[in-house]
Amino acid sequence: MLKIDDLHATVADKPILKGLTLALNPGEIHAIMGPNGAGKSTLAYTLGGRPGYEVTGGTATLDGADLLDMEPHERAAAGLFLGFQYPVEIPGVSNLQFLRESLNSQKRARGEKELNGGEFIRLAKEKAALLGLDMEMLKRPVNVGFSGGEKKRAEMVQMGILDPKLAILDETDSGLDIDALKVVGAGINAIMRKSDKAVLLITHYQRLLDYVKPDFVHVLAGGRIVKSGGAELALELEREGYAEVVAA
Q1: Nearest CA among 13, 2, 20, 22 for reference residue 54
Q2: Which of 126, 152, 159, 202: CA 20 to 30 A from 82?
Q3: Which residues, in sequence order, are CB contacts of 115 under 8 Å at separation 6+?
Q4: 3-class secondary-structure state, position 172
Q5: Local structure of 46: helix, strand or coil
Q6: pLDDT digits (tens, 9 = 90+) for 90-129
Q7: For 164-203, what is each residue's pLDDT tens digit?
């Protein structure tokens, strides 16, 4: 699915990723944890193709295709979804308009049949119900006036509609209360816990991992993966912090 080998990347000429190696297989959920400034968001943005994140070495492939050689929209059409820590607002564009055009643009790029209005509305209702989001919310401009929890639910609806192969979720638990955390966790499981999909879940805390059980947990520090383990590693980090792991 996703294979990263010796990846180096800079932001504003400052080295952030310094030889990161990681592999995700279909059907797996991997959690990335680590202290502030370790390179977690940089990894997400580099894989997503965000401008300003320059790859200076190494490789990253998705199903064998060179991910780093693709434009951001090509990565999306290839099946990559990037969830943001702070989803942006788009005044004047309704969620439904945004989501339908996003989905159909990907279908065009893959040579697939686009959805008509009725087909799309049925799909949107199904995915909104999964995340407990009222369809009236989807008629409003993208994220405008939404609470933090509503933004994250709307983003998970987007993920459900686009149906990616690989989801990279950057601190999806940020700003969520307990109820929203449960709903978002259940949504991730329902949409992405399948034998042909994979998730790279970036988080600071154990709490989301109570609802989205990872197969593997990795500690990222100093631009590299410094320790890997099972779900129990997240519990260890919650108890003891990062200092001992990073020092080792």
Answers
A1: 13
A2: 126
A3: 100, 103, 104, 107, 123
A4: coil
A5: helix
A6: 999 999 999 999 999 999 999 999 999 999 999 999 999 8
A7: 999 999 988 877 888 888 888 988 999 999 999 999 999 8
